[in-house]
Structure formats: structure tokens, C-alpha cells
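C-alpha cells help. Consider this.
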Amino acid sequence: MKISGSLINLILLLGALGSQAQELVIHPDSVKGKFIPTGVRFGTEAINIVRTFTEEDVTEFTFTADIDFHRYFLNVEWGRLDRTRQNDMGHQYEISGSYFRIGPEVNFLKKDLEKNALFFGLRYAWTTFDDELRYTSPSGFYPNEENIISNTGLRASWYEMVTGIKVKIWKYLWLAYTARFKFGVDTFERNDLIPHEIPGYGRADEVVMWDFDYWIMLRIPIRKTPKTLLSE
């Protein structure tokens, strides 16, 4: 019995469609698997460490951690600031507080099995802090008398748009860079003592701020990155 060429082509086409249908059945499971975290990164901001050990008037540490869900990361940051400022008139300003940031990131490097990242993200940030101003009266009944104005338990929050890179250097060691655009903070104009600085934000009299961070990080793998990512 002879089989025509068109019939052979039809059989081949049905076989190809069957193969593709099998792939479509498997594909949802592979997508689901990609959103299982493969590792956790954590680290510290390098510039703050250098300033803490080289400048007498500031102590600041900032720590970060992130976990991946395919191309998306959840990032958490915590920091602590203690700073003293003095001017030529003998005024001394002290601030002390901690701050938190949390938010998502999306990685634009789609097929990088090492989880290197060129990312854009958002943050919600908040802080609790105290500050104090000491100054001497230049005139009056008691000249050179020391005066103290302080705030206790101040709270502030703001938003950030962030972008940057995270790059694997060696095995578990990573370096990262983050640029931040900060906005939406309370400037405390109603207070008797208007804070000069807000921990984690910067100058309190600035309604928007730019900032840059350089991170040293370690990555702890949770599971191996699926090889199916190579074909996605």
C-alpha cells in the first residue's frame, strides 16, 4: 500500500503537535518551580563602616538581606545612626535612631543562573529617633548659660525608588551598588526643635534626596538554580 506524501506530512505534523502538547503540560510545573527561592543574600554598607572607624563624630551601620522569587526579590534593610555635630559658635547637635526599609525589586537579567542583578525597585522606609541641641545664651540675665532643646521618640516615614546592580565576585562573595531617590518625608516644621537630619533619609529640610550605597554581601544557596532557565 502506498502512502501519499501529504499523509506522511500530516503524520509528522501530528507528532510535532503531540510533542509540543507534552511540553505545555510540563511547562506549568517548571514555572511554579522557578518561584521557589534559591538563595538568601545578606550584607552591610561599606561606606558607613569606613566612616564609623575613621570619623569620631559618627557611628552608622546598615545591613541588608534579600531573597529571590524567580526574577523578583524581596529586600529588607536595617540601620543605626548616632551622630554629633558642632559649629563654631559652640552649638552641639546630637541625633540617635534606627531605620528600616522594605520593598520589592525586579531583575532585568532574565537568564543569569548566578542571580546577578540589574534591578529596579521600591522601598517603604521608616525611622524612630531622638535628637538634642545644646547651646549657650550670648546675652540676658545669665550669659553663657547652657540651654538644651530636645525631641524624644520622633517618627518619620518616606518612600524610595531604587536601582542598581548586584554582582557575584567569588563563590559566595557579592558586591552591589544602589542609587536611591527618596521622597514623601515629614519635615517636622511644627516642632520647637526642627531636626537637622533624619536617620536613613538625610537632611530633614530636603523634601527629596538622592543617596548611594555600596554593599558587601554574602549569598547562602538554598537550592540549585533550575537548568530550565537556560531555555526561557
